[in-house]
Amino acid sequence: MKWINWNRITKITRKYNDEDEENGSNVEKNKELKITQKEIKNKEKSFIESRLAWKKLFDYPIPKHANDVTYTLGGTIIVLGIVQLITGVILQQFYIPNSNSMPGAYESVSEIANNVSLGFVRNLHYWGAQFLIIMVLLHSARVFISGAYKKPREIQWLAGVGLLVTVFAFSYTGTVLKWDQEGTEALEHQIGTAKIAGPLGIFLTEQFAPSVSLLSRIFALHVTAIPAIAVPLLGIHLILIRLNGIASPKVLDKYKCITARVDQKVPFSTHINKMLINGAVVTIIVIAFSLIWSAPLYFKGVEGVEVTKPPWFLLWLYPLENIFGVPAIAYTTIFVIILFVAVPIVDRKEVTDPRQRNKMMIAMFLLLLSFVGLMIMGTLSPSMQHNMG
Amino acid sequence: MIRFYLLIIIITVYVYFSSITFLATINVNIVNAHVGEKEHGEGKSEMHAVVLSKHKDVNIELTADPMNKQWRELSSQIDIDSLYGHKISVNSLNNLTHVFFLLSWNDSTKGYHIGALREINNHTIYNTNTDGAKIVFEPHQEEAQTTSIATKDDVQNRSNNIALSDKKNNSGSVWYWDSLGPTSLSVDKEGVITKAQWKNNQWHVIIGKRILDGVHNTQSNNTTTHSLFKPGILQKGLLKFVVWDSAEGESLNKTININDNKDDKLLQAADFILLPTLNIYPKDVYLWSGILIIGVIFFVLLEIKLHNGLVLSKQERKEEDLK
Fold first, then answer.
1. Do A353 and B304 touch (CB under 8 A)?
2. Which of B78, B89, B248, B271 would bridge with B48, disulfide CB 3.0–4.6 Å?
């Protein structure tokens, strides 16, 4: 690394200043002076650059279409994730992760909900989670539609599927932590499902460590185990985006050859700006929701009683459970995860145009309609008592 | 290299399942050694059936037809054993101002009314026996959960006001119906609302009451007014149900002091919970579904637009072919 020779710069500056006083300004001299000033700036930049590789990380060229709003959903998700982290850490200070003590989990959540400031933080955490889920689903849909899971981005997609599962796991465990009627029923369903999963699910049953409240273990999952899975997955996801770049459209032309779009390039820093702006807009919407509508909290859970329905993001499982029983929850969830994992394996053609991927588009719309249709069915159907086995 | 990673993955999965199976086999004896002793030492508390009074937003239809949609779809039915070997099917609904129970039980005769003639040993006598049902409310203060509901403010305010208007102490209450009265809708001087229907060798009886105090009672000292109906709080062993069939020689007289003597043990007590509204945001499914569908359609259109410069239209294709 070269060091800036401040003595040289000072000498040149003095020299020109003296000459200026004697002979007036000179174009040649000014040029040399400007070069010197530029040299100083460059050296200062390289001082940061050499330590953080800032330019390498954030100023690499990306296609211009990456700055469309739909391509910035990933950044919005990260912004919402930060909101969740901050609000979660605050709530954690006041939450009692025990279902057996008095006051316990429900009482502490009631206290939080009844406190004006903490109640707002809780509302933010709740609505932030709702928006996070919808953003993750939309982001997955966008990646699917733009064919961004195709070679060489298969691992990126799989890491994304892992993150989708962790977001659902966060939301599910968060529902249980309230320890109201909805939370109690959610936990009973979890135990019923875990029994079906056999050895894989034993961690999630009371039998594994009966001396510790299962709610305490769910809390531990929510604040340690699930983040411990999510953070490395997010790291892999982001590193691969950096390495593989943002996907560009590819079509099959009339000569049956793949034609890729060569888009105008913009620096990645512009993409970050867009993501931060969009993230801020969504955060403002979340704040507005939190000010208007409180996060739900039902009465304290009564075990063995089933009167509520799952939250909307799990409601699609409810009609299936009504028809086929609790095992339907486990089997359908596994089936859907397998479908997501299979996407880059099934669709291996390079073409990304939705009009040239009819089968995949039909499959996506069928899945979407099933998801929405089942959710509406779940809303309209009367609540039922299920046998947890 | 890939083989090496595969080998590591296989070993990890194998070790994971082996350790889980091992832990499951020994049932984590070290951690849980003292738990078993505790369970044996303390014994289990008595389990009761739970009567759920589900919330209905609009007015509750006063129909004793158990096949009516509100009873069939909204309410949860539970079967409770009662005196004389009767099995009573209990449904309950509330709208936070009134609570209603629908009791159904088998009875092959419709019962007798006052003034009806009945011959016994060649003597014609007036029969005053009736079929009937009663619900006994016996609060157990020490067992009831004491936590307050923390749902929406209006539910909180309403729950504070809910009380049995005719009770000024903790002695409980009895709601009563018999076939002596009309089967059509009626309200007795205690304010108990009843309606009955005898169909297919079964009695179906609605018994209900207003549970929300009026303005006068709300302003009174709540500490002296016992609240039996607190939304969202499980009240253990609160309810007992009794029905009798006069044709079988059963009568109200035999059940009147049932809670004061040894027969009490014959009567199954049920836990009770009055549920407030459960769908705080029932329409949010439509909001998220709408966002999802609109979003996906928007993404498809945008992707088509992005690809448009690359795909030739039919006209352009023709022109290209002609060239």
1. yes
2. B271
Given this model, what pLDDT does residue A171 score? 96
The residues facing B102 across adjacent strands are B91, B206
* A132 and A169 Cβ atoms separated by less than 8 Å: no
Task: Determine whether the interchain pair A378/B285 forms a contact, defined as Cβ–Cβ distance below 8 Å.
Answer: yes
pLDDT tens column, B11-65: 888 887 777 666 665 554 544 444 444 444 444 456 678 888 888 877 888 888 8
Rg (CA), chain B: 31
Contact B100, B211 (CB under 8 A): no
- The length of chain B in residues reads 323
Give the Cα separation of A163 and A241 in Å (integer): 15
- Mark yes or no for CB contact A261/B299 under 8 Å: no
Name the DSSP class of B312.
Answer: P
- ipTM value, please give it: 0.85
Q: What is the pLDDT of residues A354-368, one digit of tens each?
A: 998 999 999 999 999
Are B179 and B130 contacting, i.e. CB atoms less than 8 angstroms apart?
Answer: yes
**Set of chain A residues whose Cβ sits within 8 Å of the Cβ of B293:** 368, 372
**CB nearest B285 (choices: A68, A312, A382):** A312
Which sequence spans correspond to the domains of chain A?
6-52, 62-309
| Three-state secondary structure call for residue B186 | strand
pTM of the model: 0.77
Instruction: Indicate yes or no: CB of B152 within 8 angstroms of CB of A364.
Output: no
Degrees to nearest 5, angle at CA A127 with A124 and A128:
75
Q: What is the pLDDT of residues B186-229, one digit of tens each?
A: 888 778 888 888 888 888 999 998 887 533 343 333 433 346 78
**Distance from A300 to chain B by nearest Cα, in Å?**
7
Q: What CA–CA distance (Å, rounded) separates B320 from B162?
A: 81
User: A205 and B25 in contact (C-beta within 8 Å)?
Assistant: no
Considering the domain delimited by A62-309, tell me its CATH architecture: Up-down Bundle (1.20)
Cα(A387)–Cα(A326) distance, integer angstroms: 7
* β-strands B173-178, B132-137 pairing: antiparallel
Look at the block and give the residue holding tokens 């909900």. A113
State in Å, rounded, how far the first CA of chain B is from the last one. Answer: 52
Residue B35: list chain A partners with CB under 8 A: 210-211
Distance of CA B81 to the CA centre of its chain: 17
Nearest CA in chain B to A111: B150
